[in-house]
Structure to design on (334 residues):
């Protein structure tokens, strides 16, 4: 099959290399607003570089991967769907939940598959955790903990355009909590603070946040995030049930240091970068997309799924601002 790639920044270039290594992908067509980036990728991977998304969509591609800037996502998704081309798009669908809803309305009855890039759904540990929940081996869940701790904050320009820590960072936790548990969030209570990087506070955001989510079966989920975790990139998930408890990310490269006498775990070099922590998940995600393109499966993470995670982020953002619990149904009503 022939796959098009729209956007060749850090994640786009990584996706291009991954796709070039898949047996099912015969050729790549690439484009980027920076022509030199497209030319470089074409030379490195033996791809065809074109001048614009319009030319790419008209070039006979079987599927497209959108790794462009967030503001470009809605128009590119809709253009590909109108061309009848299956889409993989990095999260988020759009800058705001309102724009995401517009995309959902534009594509939901099209018959064209759209997969949104929530890569944790393809992490081996998260997959195993979901199987444990579905099989019932944990018993009814009572507590879930999801953690995303970044080693250092992104640049000020990124923060200013990010929409805030819940929309930009915690949204990964919101999606994986929904996916692993199979439950919906009904209410949130969020709080946050600033312990460094003054430009984050200046942008009206927090650098450290926590959210308590109540799921529709009464399970409680605790989501923790920070931009300042000096030991490394720490992403974990815990599920505690009436029969058993399990953890994702509890391995030798966990960026945590034990002070228990004689403890030697974790002994590995801590993860420091998200592409390091989730390299295998990103590859599995794109392999899954090629199955979607081939018509052998449906989207494993739809626009509707992404919108649900965005609603939770909206509720948490409002809760943080107003210092109160927020019900999801109230946010949806506007």
């Amino acid at each position: 099959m022939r796959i098009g790639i729209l956007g060749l920044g850090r994640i786009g270039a990584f996706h291009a290399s991954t796709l070039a290594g898949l047996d099912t992908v015969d050729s790549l067509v690439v484009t980027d607003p920076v022509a030199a980036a497209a030319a470089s990728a074409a030379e490195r991977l033996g791809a065809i570089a074109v001048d614009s998304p319009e030319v790419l969509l008209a070039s006979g591609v079987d599927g497209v991967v959108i790794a462009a800037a967030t503001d470009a996502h809605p128009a590119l998704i809709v253009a590909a769907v109108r061309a009848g081309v299956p889409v993989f798009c990095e999260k988020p669908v759009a800058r705001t939940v309102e724009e995401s809803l517009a995309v959902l309305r534009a594509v939901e009855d099209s018959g064209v598959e759209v997969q949104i890039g929530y890569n944790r759904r393809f992490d081996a540990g998260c997959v195993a955790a979901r199987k444990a929940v579905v099989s019932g081996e944990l018993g009814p869940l009572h507590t879930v903990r999801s953690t995303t701790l970044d080693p250092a904050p992104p640049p000020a320009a990124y923060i200013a355009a990010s929409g805030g820590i819940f929309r930009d960072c915690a949204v990964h936790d919101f999606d994986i909590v929904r996916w692993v548990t199979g439950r919906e969030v009904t209410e949130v209570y969020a709080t946050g603070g600033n312990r460094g990087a003054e430009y984050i506070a200046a942008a009206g955001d927090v650098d450290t946040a926590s959210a308590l989510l109540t799921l529709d079966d009464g399970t409680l989920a605790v989501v923790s995030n920070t931009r300042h975790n000096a030991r490394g990139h720490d992403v974990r998930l815990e599920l505690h049930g009436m029969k058993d408890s399990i953890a994702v990310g509890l391995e030798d490269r966990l960026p945590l240091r034990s002070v228990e006498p004689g403890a030697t775990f974790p002994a590995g070099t801590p993860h420091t970068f998200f592409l390091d922590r989730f390299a295998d998940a990103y590859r599995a995600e794109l392999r899954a997309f090629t199955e979607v393109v081939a018509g052998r499966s449906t989207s494993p993470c739809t626009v509707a799924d992404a919108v649900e995670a965005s609603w939770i982020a909206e509720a948490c953002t409002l809760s943080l601002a107003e210092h109160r619990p927020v019900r999801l149904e109230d946010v949806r009503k506007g």
